[in-house]
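Protocol step 4 of 6: structure prediction from sequence.
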Amino acid sequence: MRPRVLVAGIGNIFLSDDGFGVEVVKELAGTDLPEWVRLADYGIAGMHLAYDLTAGYETTILLDATPHGRPPGTLSLIEADVGDNAAVTQIDAHGMQPEAVFRLLRLLGGDAGRVLIVGCEPGCVDEGIGLSPAVAAAVPAAVRAVTELAWGTRPELPVKEKTEV
């Protein structure tokens, strides 16, 4: 069966809590996900993500550190608007700017489908490997949320308004 859902862990593991998405993907690898879900750790490889998205998915779930001024470890579910309004002037093959990824995807003729972001408020994005205690404690809840999304149920996370990326 062709995967219908892509779960993409993104972030820089060398910047502490920015590695949240990568850590959640590691934990998800040991869970019971439907066969239509594909897990991938993209780290900071935005171009790789854009190319993989050209395969066509109904839903793309991004896992990322998302600063919104809330307490560290706070999870949120964000529905992203990846329409043509996202302006990008430069595409970095070794970067992970979501707007650049989706711009490249449009240039390649691809479509990410519905884009959801399971985000976590970072506490520290200084150089260093490993999540802060508050963000590490949020990983199991993020795993549950992604599992629920993959099976088609709505997780109990604060929902942020639709945001453009």
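Step 5 (inspection) to follow. Residues 85-94, 161-165 have pLDDT under 50 and may be disordered.
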